[in-house]
Design goal:
By secondary structure, the protein is of the alpha+beta class. 42% of the residues lie in helices and 18% in strands. It has 8 helices and 5 strands; from the N terminus they run ββαααβββααααα. β4 and β5 form a beta hairpin. The longest helix is centred in the last third of the chain and has 15 residues. The N and C termini lie far apart (45 Å). InterPro entries: ANTAR, PAS, PAS-like_dom_sf, PAS_fold_3, WH-like_DNA-bd_sf.
Length: 223
């Protein structure tokens, strides 16, 4: 990176969960970051144009090779780019992130790249404060069992804590205007159709998480 430290964005207020979107076109390896992803990396919105080189430069040294391998496989097999890894922002602060992605298609229906979300887990709510959220969230107790199952599935798939899993479910609920209980129920039901092969299950789980809100309302609760 050739940006001077003074050009880095000021530290943003700490939030429980920071989510930003991205797109990566395979041809030309062209990236597009939302303002939230730019800020995660320590830049002002519009300050830089992300490139593969810049993306890899920000990855934690211990995770950089794994991310490079994932990108190489995505480019050669036209698969989505998903991972759990650490990155360093422009100020050198370490972030723990999940990249949840799905295939991106062109107008002819051919795979053109991958698009999805960066989920920054660094500032997620602690377990004590999560308990308070559980008590006040409308309708939570009614669907507690299925929500706990969905949390467990996310914890297993992404190797995250219960609090982080809950915040991801809450994010998708708010983002898609779908009741939390309904979203969790659909996620658990649809998971039974996923193949048991670990190498493909992760990619298909990402697809399910990003599209389950569009499935038929099987339990009749609506949105």
């Amino acid at each position: 990176m050739n940006d001077e430290p003074d050009d880095a964005a000021p530290a943003a207020p700490r939030r429980y969960l920071t989510v930003g979107s991205f797109r990566f076109w395979f041809v030309g390896q062209r990236w597009e970051w939302s303002d939230e992803v730019a800020e995660m990396h320590g830049y002002r919105p519009g300050q830089i144009t992300p490139t593969t080189e810049l993306v890899l430069t920000h990855k934690h040294p211990d995770d950089r090779r794994d991310v490079q391998d994932l990108l190489d496989r995505a480019l050669h097999s036209a698969e989505s780019f998903s991972s759990r890894h650490r990155f360093l922002d422009a100020a050198g602060e370490e972030h723990d992130a999940i990249v949840v992605a799905d295939r991106m298609y062109d107008e002819r229906g051919a795979v053109a790249g991958t698009e999805g979300y960066y989920i920054d887990l660094t500032d997620t709510v602690d377990e004590t404060r999560q308990g308070l959220l559980d008590e006040v969230l409308p309708g939570l107790l009614e669907g507690r069992a299925v929500i706990e199952q969905a949390k467990g599935a996310l914890m297993y798939a992404y190797r995250i804590s219960a609090g982080q899993a809950f915040r991801i479910l809450q994010w998708r609920s708010q983002e898609t205007n779908t009741k939390l209980r309904t979203l969790a129920t659909r996620l658990i039901e649809e998971m039974h159709d996923l193949p048991p092969v670990p190498a493909t299950a992760r990619s298909q789980f990402d697809h399910l998480l990003l599209t389950v809100h569009r499935r038929d309302d099987k339990d009749g609760t609506g949105t």
